[in-house]
Specification:
single chain; mainly alpha; two-stranded antiparallel ribbon
């Protein structure tokens, strides 16, 4: 017999058309600019597995992009701020309803909210450590700097947690985003989307953790 539980959903408040737009912008921000940046970030960091010189060249190439700070603010910082703030808002206005769903879907929803909070903390720390503080002090970001930073066992463990949390939040967000945008409407298509997102989650986790061990 299938175990069913109550789940959480967002109760519409205020102007429904605004919520409709905001929810889709929230999904879009997480998938397009932030999701693409996450994949690029994983790729750039994974070049460390091919050697210190390869990684340093990759980072040097990225930092030489014209108007990089402007690009980061428009396509990363602003979407991240909106996605984080609206995501926190959604968590606060969520309320228990009378619908019943599979226990697994409830767990995935819970993990999505928890991973969102952990990811936000991790991203803020990561940006400060390797973007803001280095810019203020004029420190060059290279293989040696990252390696020294990860020598601390607590920081290394925090980065593993951050990688797992970030990849889950993104990959599960992909499957729910397909529902939000009306792409996967049937149960079968949604099931396939969940399976593919979990596969992507596993692959990205392996790459991310392997990259961390390369630096450490």
């Amino acid at each position: 017999m299938e175990v069913k539980q109550k789940t959480w959903t967002v109760i519409p408040r205020g102007n429904s058309s605004k919520k409709f737009i905001y929810s889709r912008l929230h999904s879009l921000a997480g998938i397009v600019p932030l999701g693409l940046f996450l994949i690029e970030h994983f790729y750039s960091n994974a070049t460390a597995m091919f050697g210190e010189e390869t990684y340093n060249k990759q980072i040097e190439g990225l930092q030489s992009i014209p108007f990089l700070p402007v690009i980061e603010i428009i396509f990363i910082a602003i979407p991240l701020l909106f996605h984080a703030v609206y995501g926190i808002y959604l968590s606060f206005v969520s309320s228990n309803n009378t619908n019943t769903y599979q226990y697994r879907r409830n767990l995935m929803y819970l993990f999505q909210r928890i991973s969102g909070i952990v990811t936000l903390i991790f991203v803020v720390y990561h940006v400060w450590s390797f973007r803001l503080s280095t810019a203020f002090t004029g420190t060059e970001v290279n293989f040696q700097l990252v390696s020294e930073h990860l020598q601390n066992p607590l920081i290394f463990a925090f980065y593993i947690l951050g990688v797992v949390s970030t990849t889950y939040h993104f990959c599960n967000g992909l499957s729910t985003g397909l529902i939000t945008w009306g792409i996967t409407l049937g149960k079968n298509s949604q099931k396939i989307a969940v399976q593919l997102s979990l596969l992507l989650f596993a692959v990205m986790c392996l790459i991310g953790i392997a990259t961390l061990y390369t630096f450490a």
